[in-house]
Write a structure and sequence with these properties.
By secondary structure, this protein is of the alpha+beta class. The chain contains four helices and 15 strands.
């Protein structure tokens, strides 16, 4: 009899927890997803699970999830950093982000394209960087994506830009002769928001898909912390 009471209590508690989790999932209070891309690295690692909620404030410069509706690009829920809200002036100059004429890069960790020599490339691969992340451009140098925390004294590295000409995808969306590293200035229209991936040269974000609607935001990522 005593064992039956314990079993019933455990079963009731478990059923209650499962019911709460189902309600939280359906209401958006607790959401989770597998992240298959590297567009928000280094903050959100490719291949990890992230947790989100729609009851947390959608603060600027936080990573949010939103529904991407541009029919010219792959649809679905994207997770990127909110960098512009209604009335904000957005400018990317030489790969650096300015919002309302203030330099924003430095407030959070971002990845940029770097040219590195063979020695630094080998060193990073030994530390666990995937070999496929290094693009060989000649016998001695590679292009890869690094954040400030990856840079080490004693090795050669310099910022590298693929983008010197107009990007046709950006032109198709905005009708301007811009590219990923030199974009804008433009002002965010009413009811719209502007997202960027932290992995600046490997992210399909508002530079390509255009503004998102405020109403299409579905939650804020709270784990991993951002």
């Amino acid at each position: 009899m005593f064992k039956n009471k314990i079993f019933n209590r455990v079963l009731l508690t478990g059923s209650f927890i499962v019911s709460v989790l189902i309600i939280a999932k359906l209401s958006g209070v607790l959401q989770y997803a597998f992240l298959p891309t590297a567009g928000s690295e280094p903050t959100l690692k490719r291949g990890t699970f992230i947790f989100m909620s729609n009851i947390l404030p959608y603060d600027k410069y936080k990573i949010l999830a939103f529904e991407q509706r541009n029919p010219n690009h792959f649809p679905g829920i994207y997770t990127q950093r909110l960098v512009g809200i209604e009335g904000d002036k957005i400018l990317i100059k030489n790969g650096n982000l300015y919002v309302n004429d203030s330099l924003i890069d430095g407030k959070f960790d971002v990845k940029q394209s770097y040219k590195v020599d063979r020695g630094f490339a080998n060193h990073l691969i030994e530390k666990g960087f995937p070999e496929e992340d290094f693009q060989n451009i000649d016998e001695d140098y590679y292009i890869t994506y690094l954040s400030d925390s990856n840079l080490e004294k004693g090795y050669f590295f310099e910022r590298f830009s693929y983008y010197t000409e107009t990007d046709p995808d950006i032109f198709k969306t905005f009708g301007k002769n811009w590219n990923a590293d030199n974009f804008g200035p433009l002002t965010v229209p009413p009811g719209k928001v502007f997202f960027l991936g932290d992995n600046r040269n490997a992210s399909l974000d508002s530079r390509y898909v255009g503004f998102a609607d405020e109403k299409d935001i579905v939650g804020r990522v709270f784990y991993p912390k951002n």
